[in-house]
């Protein structure tokens, strides 16, 4: 009768240095999350959205065409939108 499980030497989990994909994958997920939370990935998200949809419903007035704006224009537009509204702290 054969044992139902593999011998111990075959059951061992490989050490992290032999599993670069696991650590790399965890770091990549953390880095993606950090960029999303801090807003660093906003322009990449904008480009991905533009490529996927080719939308003409952009939030800015002059950029309704199908072309994506430059990174500099994008961040200036974001700052303009952020600080042109009424901001009340008290």
Description:
By secondary structure, the protein is mainly alpha-helical. The protein has a domain of 62 residues. Helix content is 54%, strand content 0%. It starts with 7 loop residues before the first helix and ends in a 6-residue tail after the last helix.
Main structural class = mainly alpha
Note the total helix count. Answer: 4
**Whole-number radius of gyration?**
24 Å
| Count of strand segments | 0
SSE order, as H and E?
Answer: HHHH
Classify the oligomer. single chain
**Share of residues in strands:** under 5%
Q: Report low-confidence residues grouped into runs of 5 or more.
A: none
| Main β sheet profile | none
What is the terminal-to-terminal distance? Answer: 78 Å
Mean pLDDT: 78
Give the fraction of residues assigned to helices. 40-55%
Outline, from the CA principal axes? flat
Question: How would the blueprint of this fold be written?
Answer:
Elements: H1 8-11, H2 20-38, H3 42-53, H4 71-84
